[in-house]
User: What shape does this take?
Amino acid sequence: MAGPPTFATPPGFLGIERREAGAAYVVAGVPMDIGTTNRAGTRDGPAAIRRASRMLVDGVHPTHWTDPRALDITDIGEFAIALGDIPGSLALIERQAAACRHLVVLGGEHGITLPLLRALSKRIGGPVGLLHCDAHVDTWADNFGQAYAHGSPFYHAIREGLVDPRRMIQVGIRSPVDRATWDWTIGQGVTIVTGHEAQELGPAALAERVRAVLGTGPAYLSFDIDCLDPAFAPGTGTPEIGGLASWQAQGLIRRLRGVDFRGMDVVEVSPAYDHGEITALAAATLAWEYLALRALNRQDS
Assistant: This one.
């Protein structure tokens, strides 16, 4: 046989190998790790998520009976970044995101969401609603002395008018946080559902609360894998106990049929701390769930 062996070819998400950026749905990796997590290593996250997605290519979604691979979808590989240059990297990410119609991004650390929201806000001509699943509020004004980092993307997104904080809901929050940051976040109109509250509500009631906040306008989903408990996602930079179980996160996303999502990311997978690919598989499955939901919404339209 001519050419390289298949194991030498970088895998596409869900086995998707096309590279045309003009598809309706574009999967892209952003291997950015600016070293401000407690445990570094997210630059290898996109590759790990793609590898783990091989577990999801046989058959269709067991609830929606949709196949994300039937969408007009491509995996364009990795976005370019400017290594060591945070503002330069953010500008590069925004420029590349602007060329894509509907992005599903595999991170990388959470700072990458800011330029993705900048590109999306320009594309639709205004702010979006936001479902933010995380252990941390990520609305600190700075992060270890840096203005732009993984703990501050939504502070800047709110200040820049990229998201409508009255249509922003944070799910799974449970890390230590200073009262000033908490009060500022609530004061902007953001709805916070703590990790314990989310589990007490259950996926069905939680989904209804998310719907009530997001409304009918355009929305974005940003899923930090540390929203899950470390028992289900040990491979992440800043783990916090008391998080959601994998099935609870699945149950939430599966119930968001009809929400007008315009893009999503799943971030903060650090393979060096993973065990048996369980964190990477969780991230891959959440992206697959999102795409299955998009396929269902296409059927409904």
Notes: Residues 278-300 form the longest helix (23 residues). Strands lie at 25-30, 73-78, 103-107, 128-133, 163-173, 191-194, 219-224, 261-267. Confidence is low (pLDDT under 50) at residues 1-9.
